[in-house]
Design a protein that fits this description.
The complex is a heterodimer of chains A (228) and B (497). Chain A is built from 8 helices and 10 strands. The longest helix of chain A is centred in the C-terminal third of the chain and has 16 residues. With 497 residues, chain B is α/β, with parallel strands linked by helices. Chain B has 3 domains: 128 residues, Periplasmic binding protein-like II (D-Maltodextrin-Binding Protein, domain 2, 3-Layer(aba) Sandwich); 101 residues, 3-Layer(aba) Sandwich (D-Maltodextrin-Binding Protein, domain 2); 214 residues, Orthogonal Bundle (MetI-like fold), CATH 1.10.3720.10. In chain B, strands 1, 4, 5, 6, 7, 8, 9, 10 and 11 form a 9-stranded mixed β-sheet that branches. In chain B, strands 2-3 form a two-stranded antiparallel sheet. Chain B starts with a helix and ends with a helix. Classes of the chains: A alpha/beta (228), B alpha/beta (497). At the A-B interface, helix 2, strand 6, helix 3 and helix 5 of A face helix 16 and helix 17 of B. The structure holds adenosine-5'-triphosphate (ATP) and magnesium ion (MG). Adenosine-5'-triphosphate binds next to helix 1 of chain A.
Chain lengths: 228, 497
């Protein structure tokens, strides 16, 4: 589902990814761990074309990215198949919760309004927020907002979900409700790559772990082995 | 996408296409149209052309009657066209067939226009306060008690040209747009003196009882009718008409009726004994006549602002988006557009649209030119506001929209622009109020809106203060709701941040 080969990228300050290679198979839940500044977020952003890279190739959900600029049409197709959940949720404050989730099915997948709406409602039910459909995002707690963000990404029925520290902006109680949702997705067979500092969660939800230190993959293997 | 960017410009394009090209009207066209359009400035225009004190919506003056006589000779009806006095010749061939408005016969005018045979002889007069130190023209040759003498003239008049040519006088010459602005300024001690045509001061002498004529009239000259150089048959017909009007004594009796022939006697009388100022009409009488005119012009002010501002917003938003997200080759052009329009005065832009575009074949009606000028000028300011607003939306919003598979334009339309528009609501509403007041600048291109109507009526009725208060109240009545709206938006955006 994801195959990264010898990916390298530098900022002006120096290299941030060095010859990163890794594979995520269909149905895998992979935890990406490592110290702060190791390049985890940068790698995730390269995977859906928010960042460019200098060398190597990415193959994800049937799309191929190479170094240099990517054509906009390719990125648009790729991103429909790759959901991304941000640390800071990034919900659209100018819309209701339901509109946040229904926007992409409506404007990108071009579903009829009614269908987009019912798909969005079903997803909100699934993350336990059916009753908040009409609310504005600012009125929700952090945990609720992140669950809406997950529903929003799922609304395009992506083949792969990418999570960048989905709970690090949340307190433990709110983290738990978000992690429950992600755990449900894992059991449902969703392919996922999750950046996290929470080893307990990684052990429970992930079957594979990749550790990135200073832009290099230093260890990868089964979650059971690496996180004893 | 180009179509979407161009869409807001559509009204402008329609205006441009609908505009008739400039054409000068020859005699046969004037006759065919049945109307003889003559231009003049009614502001402070006595005794030439001014609103009838009895009926302010009607014009009167010896030139109104002269124009009627000439039109009758041509077998057509006269029609008046308002214009700023020093820019009247620019209306020739566009909005007017000729200019009849105390235009002095000068070599420069002979060069640029056709000048008819003269129809009136004037002299220049120096006017000063009765209680002031200036009691002889010769005194101007040495500095006065306050240094160089400050003397006001009408911009573009023979008085201005004459005074500026007197290098040996200790005089600073200041030009005014309105004929009798300088008299006001002498009365209020801003100026030491004014110089103007004798017939004008004679007409307003009662109004300015604190002023007197200093010395003998000097540097006389002749009034002429201006026509474009490329309408020889119209010019000849006007000359013939004048010839007949002079020969059979109609001009003489017209001037007798306007008391212009006996002006020397009247002056002698004035100097011998103080004449009390003429009685003014009661405010109640005035209200019935003046208020409808002011309300009508307030409507023009409102119309200009509520049609120009939405256009300015649409153009500004399109430019802001283009500068941040458009094709790179377009960006410096858009930046140039913004800088040029922000860096030059609105008045100049209006002037260019109305007076210069016709020279390249694009003659816009005054209201359309005013709308276009206001919309273009304000679009530059709105573009800058929207650019700041677009940049103030957190980058995570754009990334979140893109990561859902939206195109750049979908992300802008659904996510970024709605947030930016809400963010900048308070400054944009503020600009609406500013534009609303800036509509008064449109009077330079002959649009009579509230401020212009005020100054015309104030000068013709002498009720400067009373009408100023009424006019200010009208402006407030219109802008107050806007101010409330702006405050409401401010509250809204605070709530959401
Ligand atoms: N836009 C950028 N421009 C320049 N340097 C950047 C940029 N984004 C990240 N970096 C740098 O790249 C390095 C890797 O950052 P990245 O955010 O990928 O690390 P991370 O592993 O996600 O860390 P964390 O656990 O703190 O989120 C850091 O040194 C960071 O300062
Ligand atoms: Mg990170």
């Amino acid at each position: 589902m994801i195959a990264i080969e010898e990916l390298s990228k530098s900022w002006a300050a120096g290299p941030v990814l060095r010859d990163v290679s890794l594979v995520v198979k269909e149905g895998d839940v992979t935890a990406l761990v490592g110290p702060s500044g190791g390049g985890k977020s940068t790698l995730l952003r390269c995977l859906n074309g928010l960042e460019l890279f200098d060398a190597g190739t990415i193959s994800i959900a049937g799309h191929r990215l190479a170094e240099g600029g990517h054509p906009p049409a390719l990125l648009e197709r790729l991103r429909r198949d790759v959901g991304l959940v941000f640390q800071q949720f990034n919900l659209f404050p100018n819309m209701s919760v339901l509109e946040n989730v229904a926007l992409a099915p409506r404007s990108v997948a071009r579903l009829p309004a009614e269908e987009a709406r019912s798909r969005a409602l079903a997803l909100l039910e699934r993350v336990g927020l059916g009753s908040f459909a009409a609310a504005r995002p600012v009125t929700l707690s952090g945990g609720q907002q992140q669950r809406v963000a997950i529903a929003r990404a799922l609304a395009m029925q992506p083949r792969v979900m990418l999570f960048d520290e989905p709970t690090s902006a949340l307190d433990p109680a709110m983290s738990a409700e978000v992690l429950d949702v992600i755990g449900d997705l894992a059991r449902g067979g969703q392919t996922m790559l999750i950046v996290t500092h929470d080893h307990g969660f990684a052990r429970r939800a992930a079957n594979r772990v990749v550790e990135l230190v200073a832009g290099r993959v230093v260890r990868q293997g089964s979650a059971a082995d690496l996180l004893e | 996408m180009t179509a979407r960017l161009l869409l807001p410009l559509a009204p402008v394009i329609v205006f441009v296409l609908a505009a008739a090209p400039a054409a000068t009207a020859e005699l046969d066209e004037v006759v065919a149209r049945g109307e003889f359009i003559w231009a003049a400035d009614q502001e402070g225009g006595g005794p030439h052309v001014f609103p009838d004190p009895e009926r302010p919506e009607r014009l009167t003056g010896f030139e109104v009657e002269l124009a009627a006589l000439i039109a009758a000779e041509l077998g057509v009806k006269p029609r008046f066209q308002q214009g700023q006095w020093d820019r009247l010749p620019l209306l020739l061939g566009r909005a007017a067939d000729c200019v009849i408005n105390g235009i002095e016969l000068l070599p420069e005018r002979r060069r640029d226009y056709h000048c008819s045979r003269p129809y009136f002889a004037y002299s220049l007069q120096l006017l000063a306060r009765r209680d002031g130190p200036l009691d002889a023209f010769e005194k101007l040759a040495a500095p006065g008690p306050g240094g160089r003498w400050r003397v006001g003239v009408l911009t573009g008049s023979a008085a201005e040209i004459f005074m500026r040519s007197q290098a040996d006088l200790e005089v600073d010459v200041i030009g005014y747009d309105g004929t009798i602005d300088s008299l006001e300024q002498v009365t209020s001690h801003v100026l030491d003196a004014a110089v103007m045509d004798d017939c004008i001061f004679n007409f307003y002498a009662d109004r300015f009882a604190a002023l007197r004529v200093v010395g003998r009239p000097f540097a006389g000259g002749l009034y002429t009718i201006l026509t474009p150089r490329d309408t020889p048959r119209l010019s000849a017909a006007i000359d013939d008409a004048l010839g007949r009007i002079i020969a059979d004594g109609r001009l003489k009796s017209l001037y007798d009726r306007w008391d212009l022939a006996g002006r020397q006697q009247i002056l002698a009388l004035r100097d011998a004994a103080e004449i009390p100022p003429a009685g003014r009409r009661s405010l109640r009488q005035l209200a019935g006549e003046v208020l409808p005119l002011l309300l009508k012009s307030a409507g023009m002010t409102l119309l200009l602002s509520i049609s120009a501002f939405p256009l300015a917003i649409l153009i500004g938003l399109a430019i802001a988006i283009g500068r941040l997200h458009g094709p790179p080759i377009l960006r410096p052009l858009l930046a140039g557009y913004v800088e040029v329009l922000r860096g030059t005065p609105l008045m100049l832009q209006l002037y260019a649209i109305f007076f210069l575009l016709p020279k390249v074949g694009l003659a816009l009606p005054a209201i359309v030119a005013a709308l276009a000028g206001l919309a273009l000028n304000y679009s530059a300011y709105e573009a800058e506001i929207y650019r700041a607003g677009l940049k103030a939306v957190p980058p995570g919003q754009f990334e979140a929209a893109l990561s859902l598979g939206m195109t750049k334009w979908q992300a802008l339309r659904h996510v970024i622009v709605p947030q930016a528009v809400r963010l900048v609501m308070p400054p944009v509403t503020n600009d609406f109020i500013a534009l609303f007041k800036d509509t008064s600048v449109c009077s330079v291109i002959t649009v009579v809106e509230l401020t212009k109507r005020y100054s015309v009526l104030a000068l013709s009725t002498g009720r400067i203060v009373e009408l100023a208060i009424v006019t200010a109240l009208l402006y407030l009545a219109m802008s107050w709701p806007l101010a409330l709206l702006s405050r409401w938006f401010e509250g809204q955006s605070e709530k959401h941040s």
